[in-house]
Amino acid sequence: MKKLISILFGAILLAALLPSCKGSKDNPVVLPASLTLSQTEINLHVGESKALEATVLPADASDKGIQWSSTNPQRVSVDANGLVRAQAVGTAYVVAQTVNGIKTSCLVRVLSSGSETYKVTLYKGGDEVSGTLYSWPGNTVRLEARSDDGKSHSYFWTSSSESTTVDEGLVTFGWEQREDREDFAWYSEAVIRVFSPDGCGTSVNVVSSIGKRFRFGPSSETMGSDVTILAGKSAEIALSWFDGSAFSALPEEVEYTLKSQDSSILSVDGHTVSSSDQTVGSTTLSVVLSGREFTLCVVHVEKDGSKDSSGESYTEYPVNW
């Protein structure tokens, strides 16, 4: 009898829950996929306020709620509706976050009451910086901040990246090995910001990269990170960097060395690699640049060309990276 009662009770409980289970199937949870703010940088005087608007996509997201916070509430406060208030002179970030952890931020500069806002411009080698700065990993560039009010100001410098750094305007371009990009072996992007104690400032994007694709022969056909060459052939490997419009050869003063995992299959002499005319197989080719080693590609050495490969992979022409 007790067993029968338990079965009946379970059936009643299941029947009571069925409508809600069916409802969840008809209305699946849609999580936010992106978050943007109406502004990414604002200037306010002490005591002023401004409302930020957050846009959550997709439009049918189940919960578009936003959690607001400030990295320095003593300087900049923000309420639950995104209303920003300037409390004290300085800078802070207002951070917005979705229910599933997507974050974005707005830089808030707080000026003293009655102070005038001036424009800050960045210069490199005497020329005004416009657009994105491109360079190769490990290179340094000196930036200078100037104001249009004719006065001398002290400035603070920050970088949004751990690999690309800035020290009193000296930018050191960083690098990160990228497995998710076919066109780059190393790629780093950062925002360099400069601002004065009274909140005025500006920013610039900086990008460093080294290409990942091989080019074989005069046809300049691009290929991926698996390379096949005939036994007994040699090729020169040259690293290149992206200058904003095309890949260019690294300057001669940039030193790097190549390393072969198995020298019996592929030997290295400077920037030239040579495949053995006696041994076939596969080996990994890597490069050491500024004291850091990264994998370039896997090289397959074939005796008779039996391995399928696209384009001009069987070649004795120089190979450019």
Task: Give a brief rundown of this model.
This protein is mainly beta and 321 residues long.
Account of the protein in words:
The chain is mostly beta strands. It has 3 domains: 78 residues, Immunoglobulin-like (Sandwich); 92 residues, Immunoglobulin-like; 106 residues, Immunoglobulin-like (Sandwich). The strands form 9 sheets. It has a 6-stranded mixed β-sheet, with no helix packed on it. The longest helix has 25 residues.
Task: Give me the secondary-structure topology.
Layout: H1 2-26, E1 34-37, E2 41-45, E3 49-51, E4 54-57, E5 67-70, E6 76-78, E7 83-86, E8 90-97, E9 103-111, E10 120-124, E11 127-128, E12 133-135, E13 140-142, E14 144-147, E15 156-159, E16 165-167, E17 170-172, E18 184-195, E19 201-211, E20 214-216, E21 221-223, E22 226-230, E23 234-238, E24 240-242, E25 247-249, E26 256-260, E27 266-269, E28 272-275, E29 281-289, E30 292-302, E31 319-320
Parallel strand pairs: 2-9, 12-19, 22-30, 23-31
Antiparallel strand pairs: 1-4, 3-7, 5-8, 6-7, 8-9, 10-11, 10-14, 13-17, 15-18, 16-17, 18-19, 20-21, 20-31, 23-28, 24-25, 26-29, 27-28, 29-30
